[in-house]
Amino acid sequence: MDSAGWDEAYRQAPKLWGAAANRFVEEELGGRQPGRALDLGSGNGRNALWLARNGWQVTAVDFSAVALAAGAEQADAEGLAVEWVRADATEYEPKPGKYEAVVVAYLQLPAEQLNKALRSAASAVAPGGRLVVVGHDVTNIADGVGGPQDPQVLYTPEAVVAQLEQLRVLRAERRTRTVESADGRCAIDTLVVAEGRGVAD
User: Fold this and answer.
1) 96 — phi, psi (to 5°)?
2) Strand partners, 169
3) Which CATH superfamily groups domain 3-14+21-196?
């Protein structure tokens, strides 16, 4: 779907993915010392807003102006400072090594486009910083519930890890996630967590 399609989707449902941050983002970044954070492909900012609430200096990047406006409205209502950047996640070039946390959550794209975004995200991780990548896993079609049904836009841990050569991979696994609207059934996600090499300033 292009940016116009996502604009329309967010017009129809401003909180398309709910208001709460992704559970894996909370697990991996909760309790860490706040610093600078990048949410690449932020949508309406549920993860960016959670990070800001927890003291992070957040840059949220998405190509949907409507999604960004919804996020900005929520941030204003809560008195949160978030930098909202309208840009395609596959083309955005963050400053290398700038961020202590980088999130890529459910950026479901064909491999060539996703790999480009993942390499960009990896380049942005500061020494000692943390990259969290989560997305619908390819096994979710047969064994899970919900999510895209096109295997070309689904993740595997191995494919994500292959794009993170400059980082130290801490975890690369499949995780289940209970979907409330699916009678307690579980979705299957890829979760990859990696760390910037070198020593933090």
Assistant:
1) -60, 135
2) 194
3) Vaccinia Virus protein VP39 (3.40.50.150)
Which tokens is 140 given?
């979710």
- As given in the structure block, the two tokens for residue 158 are 């191995």
Q: Can you tell me the mean pLDDT for 31-40?
A: 97
Residue-wise pLDDT for 112-161, tens only, equals: 999 999 999 999 999 999 999 999 999 999 999 989 999 999 999 999 99
Q: What is the pTM of this model?
A: 0.91
DSSP H helical ranges for 13-129: 23-29, 46-53, 65-78, 111-123
**Rounded-to-integer distance, Cα 78 and Cα 74, Å:** 6
Torsions phi, psi for 87 (to 5 deg): -165, 155
User: pLDDT confidence of 6, banded at 50, 70, 90?
Assistant: very low
Domain boundaries defined on the chain: 3-14+21-196
Which residue, 112, 107, 110, is CA-closest to 88?
A: 107
Residue 48: partners with Cβ closer than 8 Å, 6 or more residues away = 37, 39, 42, 58, 60, 71, 82, 103
